[in-house]
Amino acid sequence: MTDDTHIVKSYGEELQFLNDSLIQMGSLTESLLADSMNAIIILDKDAVARIVESDKKINEYRAKIDSQIMTLLVKRAPMAIDLRFAITSLRISQDFERIGDLAKGNAKKMLPLPQNLPQDLLSSLKRLGNVVDAQLNKSLDAYIKKSKDIAIEVIRLDTSVNEHTFLAIKEVLAYLSKDPKNLEYATNLLFVAKNLERAGDHIRRVAENIYYFVEGDYYKKS
Amino acid sequence: MDTKIKIKSTNLNVFYGEKQALFDINLDINQNEVTALIGPSGCGKSTFIRCINRMNDVIDICKIQGEIEMDGKNIYAPNTDVVSLREKVGMVFQKPNPFPKSIYDNVCYGPKIHGIAETKDDLDQIVENSLKKAALWNEVKDRLQEPGTSLSGGQQQRLCIARAISVNPEVILMDEPCSALDPIATAKIEELIDELKTTFTIIIVTHSMSQAVRVSQKTGFFHLGKLIEVGTTEKIFKNPTNNMTQDYITGRFG
């Protein structure tokens, strides 16, 4: 892994390459999520095309990482920490891909929205987006450092994500109750909140996998 | 199912002259399980299994301290009948080593010298049963009088397994039994090992990590004559406790 001292140098390099690919994929996902969130807040509809393209790149990473892991399993029959690394990387790349999909979905939800949405409504979504962004950023940190403690922090942030989702949904419902004509917009905004919450769940799973990689056992809530 | 300890090694130390080959080995071997011993060459795995049937006795400079119990009896106690011990503990080696005799004679040799069979019919039955248990019967039943050495490598190894089990042992020691075999023959032997464990207790020395994972329930890692870690095979290969074990099985050992 990162402190690699494999006897077969190319094996170590393959693991390192996989590690780097996953970090790149994670960084791209992080940018996409932030980009999508930012576009929603400022209702930048031109950003959608760019976000869709970024999501494609993330999907390409997923395919590339899948292939790297398959080759690793076939060639090296990894054991112990290397096996856990291969398996958790496979799972983490799936979660990154899903986060990318959700961020892309959110950006698309913005297309029908009017430019004059109330600021309060957007601020609560913005706060939720910020918490999820921070959670994803921390999960990448945990992955880079292979830190169990940071992974646990990420897992615990899930509660905060859920609370912020609840507040954002409340805000959207209040907006809806003001005028039935708001229904279409409100529905879209509810999806945005829900997608962010689901992204948070995927980030939590990323962290749980990092924990499993480090500890060789599943995270149990204490 | 409760696991019963078949063999118990307690503070086992082995010396070849001045050189100590094993240091305080404490290892329990469960009955009707396959225990794999892994570790770099010269780490003492083979020395350890050779203590179990007292093969090391034939080496003059070899000195053994400590105890190995089988079914609660110390096999190094002065009154131990070594011949009967070796009847109970069969062995299969790295390279197939059939006797330069017919397939039939290879298998019936042990029962004959141990006086297990009384009549020719008994002997025929033992040969057939042993070859069946070794999954070789169908391939050789029409050529029992041909030399054992005429068989392929994989078949020869199964013949050696048949020879080992022909005297109804309780334990089978296998010292890298597949290292000279191709993948198909290896797969056959591995499948056989899995079947044999219902009848016998098996200890296998292997350099193939994946083989240890496939065939064993318990794994011990030896290094420089010491037993570094022992545990369920699953634990050892997914999440070993000791860093040396991890370094060895992941190929980081320098």
Task: Describe the structure concisely.
The complex is a heterodimer of chains A (222) and B (254). Chain A is mainly α.
Explain what this protein looks like in three dimensions.
The complex is a heterodimer of chains A (222) and B (254). The model of chain A has no long low-confidence stretch (mean pLDDT 94). Chain A has 6 helices and no strands. In chain A, 83% of the residues lie in helices and 0% in strands. Chain B is of the alpha/beta class and 254 residues long. Helix content of chain B is 36%, strand content 26%. In chain B, α3 (103-113) packs across α4 and α3 (103-113) packs parallel to α6 (153-165). The radius of gyration of chain B is 18 Å and the shape is globular. The interface between A and B is medium-sized, with 18 and 16 residues.
Strand and helix map with partners:
The complex is a heterodimer of chains A (222) and B (254).
Chain A: H1 9-41, H2 47-76, H3 80-109, H4 119-145, H5 148-178, H6 183-215
Chain B: E1 5-16, E2 19-30, E3 34-38, H1 45-52, E4 62-70, E5 73-74, H2 82-88, E6 89-92, H3 103-113, H4 120-133, H5 137-140, H6 153-165, E7 171-175, H7 183-196, E8 201-205, H8 209-215, E9 218-223, E10 226-232, H9 233-238, H10 243-249
Parallel strand pairs in B: 3-8, 3-9, 6-7, 7-8
Antiparallel strand pairs in B: 1-2, 1-4, 4-5, 9-10
